[in-house]
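Progress report, Aim 2. The chain analyzed during this reporting quarter is listed below.
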Amino acid sequence: MSKTAFVGFGEVNTPIDIIINKCKAAEEGLKKEGLDLISVYPITDDYEEKDIKKAYDALEGKDFDSLVLCIAGWIPTHAVVKIAEKYRHLPIVLWGLCGWIEEGRIVTTADQAGTSALRKTFADLGYKFKYVYEIIGKPSNTKKVADFCVAASAAKELRFARVGMAGYRDMNLYGTLYDGSSLKREIGPEIETFEMLEIKQRYDEITAEAKAEVIDKVMSKWNFLKPAKREGMEMAAGYYLAIKSLIDERGYKAISLKDVDGMKKLIGFPPAPIFMLLADCEGVSTIPENDCLGNVTQLIIKSLTGQCGAYLEFYEFFEDSVLAGVPDYIPAEVTMGDTTVMPAAFGELSEGILNVSKVKTGTITMCRLFCNDGKYFMHMVVGDGKTPPKWEEAGWTQPAPQLPGLQVFLDDVEKFAQNVMCQHYIISYGDNRDRIKDLCNILNIEII
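Predicted structure tokens for the chain:
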């Protein structure tokens, strides 16, 4: 839950009950949006500045991620700035309320006189802020305010997030690389690389009983289209427990593994069921192939929406849509129906447990964080995800598995294709562009 300070203002000569009632309604609206508020109002421009001191005292020593300055009527600029200055390091919402209609006439407390006097001042002072105003007779913009506050909390969470990365640069790919210094400076997450040897050493300590417990409690509930070898199920359970111990020890919020040149080549075990167990049982974000910024994009989506931020990769572009799927697994959270798996092999790789579940359909936001010369950008688009026609990737043992995927219909496929930044994009359900834009504004990430 996003922690936010709410400070309501009104001029000293305005009837105090009007200011209190307007602030209270605004406060209740934000609470309904899920914000955890520390509130103080009404704050006026009284000559002795007793109200300003009241605000100082109410907020002193409190922990919050953003500041909502609610302008319920005309207020001289200095009264607001004296409070804003103490919290200039936080993202701020400048929120102007509005008047009302009474017996056929507009009654106003000059809310937008207050905000229009403040907007440029805030910009000149270098605040990281969002300006929101209300309109008489229209629905309240509480969601806009709340979205920005959620984005502020996400930015704070990202500043200290840790990602676990087994190995580095799977298949010698370029698009999955990252620059550690700029990532830490601009966004915050720390990507910690650990060797596959450490996983193997921990795996060797896992008991047969511990593996059997995972199989009996979790894996046995999967819908197997064909029986899988017991040895493969035990390897999946064992490696899951080995990596879980690292997550518990180091507090990783996301995980990636060296896939093709690591788990498959060196250990002879495709890691799809390991990713499934980590995502579904531990709640961490997962992506294969050492996709560093893919993991960070997942952290962004999870912080903003609470969703897991599953990955899809592109197989085909059409005139009105793209075919996006995965060659290995999807989390249960984005699965339509039961988790369905089958043993299968691809090319020269060893047989593994492949996820062939159907992906939930609906409106989705696809996005990808990327970096150019130390500056970060977010490419995002909203589309309509539908169940695709039957398709397969050449190379699987026949009959080829029906891989998880979506046919995503876009307004402008050509524009999307000409800006595509990687084979992996992160999906979330619903149109989440507003919250993503708010976070990008806070972190100086440019939207593409």
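The mean pLDDT is 95. DSSP finds 14 helices and 23 strands in the chain. These observations will guide the mutagenesis work planned for the next reporting period.
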